[in-house]
Design brief:
It is found in: Membrane. With 296 residues, the chain is of the alpha+beta class. It contains 8 helices and 9 strands. 11% of the residues are buried.
């Protein structure tokens, strides 16, 4: 029979083997790369995901190998034309050399601090060489590419690759923006007043031209009407003369009837004439002849 001591020793040996096995195994995730350290000194870098072995006295440090974000706080930058800009930018990077990264900065937090300093310096250098309008509108893509290239060269010494740099916002400071807005507002008001003045002048020219054309048309129409009226009067006189030549009595009768019609239109028309006046000759005799005076 086995003694109890033998069982305890076997159990302790198995426990020791399990502890050594546990300390000798480590796993690497697909999103990580691992540095193996021996008493604080790096001895190996493992980038393949899976289960790996190490000496029990060695330790491991996992470093993210995904693309990481760097948020840069807004800062003021002076452009080439001496205009101040508030620039809000961010960067994306990844750790391409885990050993160099660990030896230079040691952690992602320290790397973010170092990259923020480098990014601010690159922003000031690049944006300080161009005018305000190039930053805001004309050359923003080219400028972001230049900033990324400079930042990538400087970050290479830390085992970092800068993937992208973007300027989220580039604008004037609030007080400058208000001054620019007021200046733009004044300029637009001046342009609007100029446009209104030009419009008023053009309207006055159109009205004057229309009035002049209306006067000419009215004068021509009046002249044509007078000519037509003159032709009509001449034709009327010709017809009257022709009628008088054909039948003088009828012509006299017609003229008298016309005179009656024109003179007796109103109900309060009054005539101060003798009853035996020539005007009333058709009232007493249908032929219009006056009666001969009686002989004494």
């Amino acid at each position: 029979m086995r003694s109890p001591v033998t069982g305890i020793v076997a159990l302790l040996g198995l426990l020791l083997v399990l502890i050594v096995a546990y300390m000798s195994l480590f796993s690497v995730q697909q999103t990580e790369q691992t540095i193996v350290l021996r008493f604080g000194e790096p001895v190996d870098v493992v980038t393949d995901p899976g289960l790996h072995f190490k000496a029990p006295w060695n330790s491991v440090i996992n470093i993210d190998k995904r693309i990481l974000d760097l948020e840069n706080p807004s800062q003021e930058v002076i452009a080439f034309d001496r205009r101040r800009l508030v620039v809000d930018a961010f960067a994306r990077y990844r750790i391409k050399n885990a050993l160099r990264f660990y030896q230079s900065v040691g952690s992602i937090q320290a790397a973010n601090i170092q990259l923020t300093t480098l990014l601010n310096a690159a922003l000031r250098r690049v944006l300080g060489e161009v005018n305000f309008i190039n930053v805001v509108r004309d050359e923003r893509e080219k400028l972001m590419l230049r900033i990324r290239e400079q930042l990538d060269r400087e970050a290479d010494g830390y085992g970092i690759q800068v993937v992208d740099v973007r300027i989220r916002r580039a604008d004037l400071p609030d007080q400058n923006s208000q001054a620019v807005y007021d200046r733009m507002k004044t300029e637009r008001q001046r342009e609007a007043a100029e446009f209104r003045a030009q419009g008023g002048q053009k309207a006055q020219e159109i009205r004057s031209k229309a009035d002049r054309e209306a006067t000419v048309i009215e004068a021509e129409a009046r002249s044509q009407a007078e000519q037509t009226r003159g032709i009509g009067d001449a034709e009327r006189n010709r017809l009257f003369a022709e009628a008088y030549g054909k039948d003088a009595d009828f012509f006299t009768f017609y003229r008298s009837m016309t005179a009656y019609e024109n003179g007796l239109k109103s109900s309060d028309t009054r005539f101060l004439l003798r009853p035996d006046s020539d005007f009333f000759r058709y009232f007493g005799n249908a032929s219009g002849k006056t009666a001969a005076p009686a002989k004494p």
